[in-house]
Design goal:
It is a single chain. The chain has a six-stranded mixed beta sheet with strand order 10-9-13-14-16-15, with helices on one face. It has a two-stranded antiparallel ribbon with strand order 1-2. Strands 3-4 form a two-stranded antiparallel ribbon. It has helices at residues 6-17, 57-61, 83-93, 113-122, 127-131, 136-142, 157-163, 198-212, 235-248, 280-284, 296-304, 314-324, 349-352, 357-366, 372-386, 391-397, 405-416; strands at 27-33, 36-42, 53-54, 68-69, 71-74, 77-80, 146-147, 154-155, 176-180, 190-194, 216-219, 228-231, 257-261, 265-270, 331-333, 341-346, 420-422, 435-437. The radius of gyration is 27 Å and the shape is elongated. The longest helix has 15 residues, at 198-212. It is of the alpha+beta class and 438 residues long. It has four domains: 3-93, no CATH class; 99-164, no CATH class; 176-352, 2-Layer Sandwich (Heat Shock Protein 90); 368-437, Arc Repressor Mutant, subunit A, CATH 1.10.10.10. It contains 17 helices and 18 strands.
Length: 438
């Protein structure tokens, strides 16, 4: 496009937008790509939707009256909405998604510039360099995290969810709770609570589960070089289930996402349940394809961070991961009111059937009794080969299903003797703690 023509095109776009009812103006920005002048149009969902446009643009252009109608997409076509479709559009428009609403109880300054810059750097955005010397309001406006009239600019909810250190101050109980419940009576129960920006709490909760909950069972098979490795829960399935809970829960309901671990299963509970377009038969057959997303803006940010896939791929990934691990298939539950959604991941039978005679024989045949000195030697060799590792990662490298008391004791002894050390000595109980060579 000729640079001299850009101004005329922008005016023409503005004139066309004036024909929309109610008036809607997209974000229009000239840019140069590969030496060519282009115009970028950013068309976010409007707060006054749905919008009508003239059925005959040329009539409106010539100041003649033209009927205005709603238009929708069907497959690859744009068609005029019928009466029922118009009612549905108007009904949907009454409820602007919560994550895309203006929060009049917060200030733009509640969004941290450091968190915004960190996000832009992670997703390799061109906005990153500019974010270092621009105001939060300027960068947030470009990211569509600010709304309201000029004289009363306020943050959008999704901006507070990702770029404030404690979003639970604005959205109570927007957190993840992981509860390890080895006994129904609560004896020995452990609970961890993960707060912070949504992406951080999701990463922290997944790291905790991966390091302290997921265990591996290794079986040597005769006439086969490689051992068979089985997990109590495949990490990929847990990752997808928990990411989907963060993506699809309602942040208007003041209840946390809860991950409950028992000797039989892992349950991930979020509120509310799936869209009513998903039937009970769909749930039973593990085919959950929704035509509507509750939190599109949250989904956009998680996709940018490569933490979710979107496009209804989460459930198939959970199912395939459980199958590939040899686990029982996941179970998806809700009630008639769709007030909750519960994902149940059964523990692999090898970990559940602790009294199974065949398992005992297999364990005895494949177990290796090691002295404390042998364990020390192996720990040192593992750290030389892999660098710093968490205690759980060391256990996996040594072929243990989980951290044994002996291994824990040996590592503590090695730390006391100065053979190895904590990577973060001032935070010995940190969930990110690792062991490294002195």
């Amino acid at each position: 496009m000729d640079a001299d023509a850009i101004d005329g095109v922008e005016k023409d776009i503005l004139n066309k937008c004036n024909l929309i009812e109610p008036r809607y103006i997209p974000v229009v920005e000239p840019a140069v790509v590969d030496g060519k002048n282009i115009i970028l149009l950013w068309v976010p969902g409007g707060e006054n939707r749905p919008y009508k446009c003239p059925e005959k643009v040329y009539a409106a252009k010539n100041k003649e009256k033209s009927e205005k109608s709603y238009y929708i997409r069907k497959s690859s076509n744009t068609v005029k909405a019928n009466y029922l479709e118009e009612r549905e559009l108007i009904g949907l428009a009454r409820n602007v998604p919560f994550d895309d609403r203006i929060n009049y109880h917060a200030e733009i300054a509640d969004m941290r510039s450091s968190l915004i810059s960190e996000f832009l750097h992670t997703v390799e955005s061109e906005l990153y360099e500019g974010s270092l010397n621009r105001t939060v309001e300027e960068v947030a406006t470009d990211m569509r995290l600010v709304g309201g009239p000029t004289e009363l600019r306020k943050p959008i909810n999704v901006g507070l969810m990702f770029f404030n250190e404690r979003p639970d101050n604005f959205f109570p109980y927007s957190r993840i709770e992981v509860v390890d419940k080895p006994d129904p009576t609560g004896i020995g129960m452990k609970e961890r609570v993960f707060t912070g920006p949504l992406d951080r709490q999701l990463r922290d909760a997944l790291a905790y589960i991966q390091n302290y909950v997921i265990a591996e069972y290794v079986t040597k098979v005769s006439d086969q070089a490689e051992a068979v490795r089985i997990f109590n829960w495949p990490y990929r399935a847990v990752e997808e289930a928990l990411s989907n809970a963060v993506y699809h829960r309602s942040y208007q309901i003041h209840e946390p996402i809860t991950v409950t671990i028992t000797p039989e299963k892992m349950e991930i509970l979020s509120l509310p349940g799936p869209d009513r377009s998903i039937s009970d038969d769909d749930l039973e057959n593990r085919v959950l394809i929704s035509s509507r997303y509750r939190n599109r803006r949250i989904g956009d940010f998680l996709k940018e961070l490569k933490m979710v896939e979107g496009r209804n791929t989460g459930i198939p990934l959970i199912v395939s991961s459980m199958k590939n691990n040899g686990s029982d298939l996941p179970i998806f539950k809700t009630d008639e009111e769709r007030s909750y959604f519960r994902v149940i991941l059964p523990i692999h039978p090898v970990f559940r059937d602790e009294q199974d005679p065949e398992r005992e024989i297999t364990e005895q045949r494949n177990s290796v009794r090691r002295s404390r000195e042998e364990i020390k030697k192996l720990v040192l060799e593992t750290l030389v080969q892999n660098g710093s590792l968490s205690m759980g990662e060391i256990a996996v490298q040594l072929g243990y299903a989980k951290i044994s008391n002996t291994l824990r004791s040996v590592i503590r002894e090695m730390i006391a003797d100065g053979e190895v050390k904590f990577l973060y000595p001032d935070k010995p109980n940190s969930r990110l703690q690792k062991i490294c060579l002195v």
